[in-house]
Design brief:
Elements: H1 2-16, H2 21-133, E1 140-145, E2 148-154, H3 155-158, H4 168-182, E3 187-194, H5 209-226, E4 234-238, H6 251-257, E5 259-266, H7 272-285
Length: 286
Amino acid sequence: MKKLMIFSAVALLTLSSCVSKKDFMALETKQKETQDLLNTATVKLNSCLADEAASAARIKELRERLSDMKSNNLALIESTKDMTVLTTQGAKNVEKSLESLKEKDLRITRLQDALTKKDSVTLALVTSLKKEVGLNDEDIEINVEKSVVFISLSDKLLFKTGSYNISDRANTILGKVATVINGKPNFEAMVEGHTDNVPYNRGGVLLDNWDLSVKRSTSIVRALQELGVKPEQLIAAGRGDHLPLVANDSPTNRAINRRTKIYILPKIDQFYEMIETEMKSLSQEN
């Protein structure tokens, strides 16, 4: 720009010495117009350069945004793939959960059926025992304890004090019990002897109330066997004086504690095995 102005000035000085004043003024006017055009062009050029810089910055910003959008789009595509996998897996998990619930429901139904069947058998057994043995003797109790049917016989019906020899009346009662057991080949009978807390001191092979309770139990077992009950259905057990019904603080209470209980038990492989297996399966899955 400066070079152009110097050149114009030199040209004017040179021309002024060779041309007339009128021509010089015309040239000066022309030079001023040229200068104005040059200034206008310079302003426009600077404006264009500024616009170009702004456009370049805008283009750079748009390219960066486009790059970010591409990256986000790729991430979204991958996320969608993951979501598809998760959704598919979730559907499989729901299906497995439904299958598991169906299996549990089936087990619970089977368990309820088994318990219902057992309750029905228990009720029928109690009815049968009460029909055979009768209900009019206060020394005979027929009841259900923890879903197990039992007959409790006072020892005064069965034995004399300190003895394990069965009385004649006991044979009559045990005959009725044997009739019920013989009608239930899939059941077992556990005879459980109990004594009071008076120490056993009659000598012989029996040392204490443990021995006395067991000996009374085996006496009952032998009597039932003689009455036709299969020995494989019989179990002999003794509790001594360690499970009293009442305090051993009077002759009346001691008489209550001297008793023999006969449990009528369904064979375990018929009822309890299935129940225990189902319960274990349910507890492990929970």
